[in-house]
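Thread: Modeling a multi-component assembly for a lab meeting

Hi all, long-time lurker, first post. My supervisor asked me to bring a structural picture of a complex we are working on to next week's group meeting, and I have zero experience with this. I have the sequence lines for every component (780 residues in total). Could someone generate the structure of the whole assembly? Inputs are pasted exactly as I received them:
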Amino acid sequence: MFIRTVEHDTSLDKFRAEVRDFCERELPPVIREKQKRGQHLEKHEYISWLQRLGSRGWNTGKWPKEKGGLGWEPAQFLAFQEELGRAGAPPLMSFGPTMAGPVIYTFGNEDQKRQHLPGIIKGDLWWCQGYSEPGAGSDLAALKTRADRDGDDYIVNGQKIWTSTAHWADWMFALVRTDQKAKKQEGISFILLDMKTPGITVRPIIGITLGHHLNEVFFDNVRVPIANRIGEENKGWTYAKFLLANERVGNVDVAKVEGNIEQIRQLMAETREAGKPLSDDPTFNRRLAELEVGLATVKALMADQLAAARLSGAPSLMGAAALKLRGTELQQGILQTGLDVLGRHGMVYQSDALNAGWNGEMIGPESSADVIYEHLYRRAATIYGGSSEVQKNIIAKGALGL
Amino acid sequence: MPSLSSEERQQLHDSLLELLGDKYAFEHWKKIARAPGGEGFGRAEWQEFADMGWLGIALPEEAGGSAGGMTELGIVMAAVGRFILLEPFLGTVVLCAAAIEKAGTERQRRMLSDIAAGKLLLAFCHAEPGGGYAREWVKTVATRDGAGYSLTGEKGFAIGAHAADQLIVSARIGSEAGPVGLFVVPRAAAGVSLIQAPALDGRPGAAMTLAGVKVGADAKLGGSDMDMLAVIDEIIDRGVVMACCEAVGAMATVTDQTVEYLKTRQQFGQPLSKFQVLQHRLVDMSVSTEEARAIVHAALQALDDKAKDAQRLVWMAKVKTAQCARFVGGQGIQLHGGMGMTDELSIGHYYKRLTMCETLFGDAEWYLRQLAQRREAA
Ligand SMILES: Cc1cc2nc3c(=O)[nH]c(=O)nc-3n(C[C@H](O)[C@H](O)[C@H](O)COP(=O)(O)OP(=O)(O)OC[C@H]3O[C@@H](n4cnc5c(N)ncnc54)[C@H](O)[C@@H]3O)c2cc1C
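Re: Modeling a multi-component assembly
Sure thing. I ran the full set together rather than chain by chain. Output:
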């Protein structure tokens, strides 16, 4: 694989212009305004935007054509993300298009594809990921939530934790134990749950951001049709790993990262040290340059993985691990720089300003609450999707044979 | 400086940890921090700290203090950090008490007794929005108005300003080119408008505008129109070293808690503490805490000895402590995994406090730059 730099690909200029134009026309003013302030979107607002993207097939542009996607080359997908970022559009949703979708079109049966893929392509439905449990984080295969057969159904009992946006989700893809006696990786199945099924309780977890994004999800005798199982019973670990590799490529949203760099550039212009803007300061400019080098590298790593996914149906576990590792470090580095600039404003965190309708007075730059929120939230970037330590273990074992 | 003997220091340290460990566990912290309609700190606690003699530890005996030095105050601040105490130590006891002691007239110094007794809360309002960390940046002006002054300007966010009885405000006397004076301004004075907000770590405070705030002649600290920038420099240095002490205490807690957590958290059929890479990480956290403690102690000692290079040491201590705080705080969250990301656990609150300590009065980058400029000048 060779490095492709997206910027120089002029064949994409027309597509870029199309995306820009689309965002200009279709991005609802409410969302645009909220995005500018970093305010939390309501589910219906987010969905309405995803549906607009869906009308063009853009939620799933990188899917192969025969799976209902547009068969985008990696460069086109990256260009798409960049244009969205620059237009101030919300980040792409990954639970459906990056995680659930590819598992369903690769391992699911025809009924499942018919039932679920259109909703993901069109952006109608919200998915969540039921992997982690209290006792199964890094050691995911130790999961205990069980699914016992009862006629045509599984009866699911147990608990998931850290389930992002479960409180919004229409569907969950989940790992459950279907064989209590087998080796831990060999007794797991991959199932799809309708979140409206009786017996599911979603309980919020408030994060260090002071926001509600995470949840605990409890299953109390939840009936799930066996028809909702993806692939074979007890082969879920294979599908789970396939999904994780895709997830890790999607973990680093380059558009978002690019937007953060832009945000910092603006903050530097607005922030003064002894009356002079930080944008005049060589040290801060050097740091920005360093972050840009990091971003270019991460984009190149990502282009490789997207290409690998096109060639062989999935990114390589190792390549995805390396990308996730460096991409999330970069993200944290960028947001640390944001915080270092903001420190000069007295470290105020007006988290209420992130809620729509807030009419208080902002101290310091307008984007400060958003930057601090992001800084705090992305402390988790090296934890979710498999921690940095876990990525290193994957590379040590898988690539270096240690 | 009549400092305490080493036995007395040990006693002070022990009594702090004993009382706070007993009464100031995290559950208690949460109750105070999140009390509906609360001030973000505990008045009863403040009184208790006064009764223990902690507020007056470095105040003169005639003010009811123990006449301890920076080392003693540092011991108190390290304990403040260990338990991330919410009460306004930094604003009242570290900064404003120093301002009054260093700059105040005999009469004004009487306020020190009230500080020691826990009856007076203050906030130091010096930094301004356009100044960043630059210490000499003062645009607020105090023009003469009859026998007193009229203050106009803008001050940046100061923790605890929302609840302070008095604000100590820096302003240039006469005009924007005048000498810098320090003024004691009642928070409730006409013309003071506060914008209240929470800090990154949730502690409430306020930024403010002063629009023709009238104060008497006796509001100005000291009897003359002497330029106070050198005094402000000393006050801020004291803030710097005490923020470092706080960070050292907080780092010690983060390290302890993370060691304990990894000993109990099981993954892959064993406690996480069995993984060598995590053992080494914990070692790095512990050594970082120790490095910061050592250089901060050296800085405290230099201040107490009135050593010539004391300021340089204080700044070096800030650089090192800020770097260590970033590492230790970040790893505290990282090694707790998802748990570290919750508002429920204390580890995230320590992370936030450490982030505050890192940036208060200037971050590592800023002090490195000052140190480099000094080398050039020398
Ligand atoms: C913001 C956020 C969003 C999330 N969203 C979701 C979601 O939507 N769905 C979902 O299923 N999960 C989600 N997760 C869960 C996430 O995948 C787990 O938190 C993660 O896998 C780590 O598990 P843990 O929290 O149990 O930490 P632990 O596994 O307990 O790990 C604690 C620390 O030990 C380290 N460690 C563990 N094992 C080893 C080892 N063998 N060698 C070296 N170091 C090791 C870890 O790297 C970590 O630093 C989310 C988490 C966060 C924080």
